[in-house]
Amino acid sequence: MSAAPARRRRIVVKAVLWVVCLAPALSLGIAALMDGLGANPIEEITHRTGWWALFLLTVTLSITPLRRVAGKPGWIRYRRLVGLFAFFYATLHFLTYLVLDQFFGWSYIIEDIAERPFITLGFATWLLLVALAVTSTTGWIRRLRKNWQRLHRLIYPAALAGGVHFLWKVKADTREPIVFLAVIIALLLVRAWAPWKRRASRVG
Ligand code: HEM
Q1: Which residue's CA is the nearest one to ligand 1's atom 19?
Q2: E strands within 39-84?
Q3: How far is CA 202 from the centre of its chain?
Q4: Whole-angstrom Cα distance, residue 154 to residue 150?
Q5: Rounded to 5, what percent of the chain is helix, strand, coil?
Q6: pLDDT in tens, 150-186
Q7: Ligand 1, closest atom to CA 176?
Q8: Can you give the pLDDT at residue 199?
Q9: What is the chain's alpha carbon radius of gyration, rounded to the nearest angstrom?
Q10: Whole-angstrom Cα distance, residue 19 to residue 25?
Q11: Ligand 1 in contact with 168 (CB < 6 A)?
Q12: How does DSSP assign 131-171, residue by residue?
């Protein structure tokens, strides 16, 4: 395919991804303006932003194996965009806790992060996502070279920690966090297995 149509297609795919990834935030904003978030709006915002953060993080992880299976190496171009939207929702989630839930009560927030393991894990996950988002630029890829790939493997512990944070929070129906964790662990195993497979085929 010549360069111009391929470039046009990439722009269209990116525009569609922007719309799809922004839709949950827009629908949340509209529901908030129209008083449509139910009896406990803060809980609803925390729920939706946390869910989308974890979902988009899982989608980001799946892009590498999916592009191999589908034979579409170019899909790698969209991974950063989806990953940054995962960070965007995680940050909205954190801000909901910080601003709407705790009203910037710093001493209580620090105590919460230090003493409630569920919050400690959420905060640690967010810090990992900050490191990944900050170093996701072309400048950092160039600066860190091989270490960039090592650093960005942190997306796996981040997704696992996000999944456990979700499981920890749920009291009755644990099915959804368990499905998330099963998918994340499967993606981790695929990732661990793929280099071994490449080495074996080189030997064989
Ligand atoms: C700054 C760190 C974080 C804090 C303070 C925090 C805090 C919270 C709180 C207070 C809840 C609701 C608990 C409840 O309703 O009983 C929650 C739920 C949740 N969080 Fe976080 N969180 C953080 C980071 C994260 C991150 C980084 C992710 C994802 C990658 C995440 C994903 C979730 C999910 C999926 C839920 C469950 C949503 C639901 O079904 O209600 N959280 N978090």
Answers
A1: 50
A2: none
A3: 34
A4: 8
A5: 85, 0, 15
A6: 999 999 999 999 999 999 998 889 999 999 999 999 9
A7: 40
A8: 53
A9: 19
A10: 10
A11: no
A12: HHHHTTSHHHHHHHTHHHHHHHTTHHHHHHHHHHHHHHH-S
